[in-house]
Predict the structure.
Amino acid sequence: MHSAIELVLAATLILLPSAVGLSASAAIVGFIAGAMLAGLALSGTAPSGRGGLPLSAHAVYDWAMGTGLICTGIVLGFASGPTTLFVFLAAGMAELTLTASTSYSTSRA
């Protein structure tokens, strides 16, 4: 479920900045951050499979993405305006909320 929600957030980051008319720099940063988040979500779908990301590393990357999105929102918010601030702060808070609510442990079938 975590990866599915993360993929939705990634798609939102890719599409929303252009849809609401943010600056070109905000759209580019949104695209890059969304692509990184999509890659992170896809790498965590099969922790026991070949080439999967360890759960502990996934947790650290999730916290880093959330924190990075909030910092990006603050910086771009000063440069581009309050709408940019709101979009990236909301994405960062969504990522941090998802991260905080996830139990990063392997489930036994």
Notes: The radius of gyration is 14 Å. The mean pLDDT is 87. DSSP finds four helices and no strands in the chain. The CA atoms of residues 16 and 68 lie 18 Å apart.
